[in-house]
Amino acid sequence: MENSPTALFDSYESDFKDLVRSIREKLEADVEDVRGEQRKAALRRVEMELDEAEEMVSQMEIEIQGIPQSLRPSYQTRIRACKSDLTRYKTLSKDVRTQLSRSELLARPGVATSTSDEPYGTSSDRTRLLAGTALLEDGSRRLLDSQRIALETEEQGADILRSLRGQREQIQNARDTLQRADTSVDRASGTLKKMIQRMYRQRVATAAIIVVLVVLILVVLYFKLVR
Question: Does the keyword Coiled coil belong to this entry (predicted)?
Answer without folding.
Answer: yes
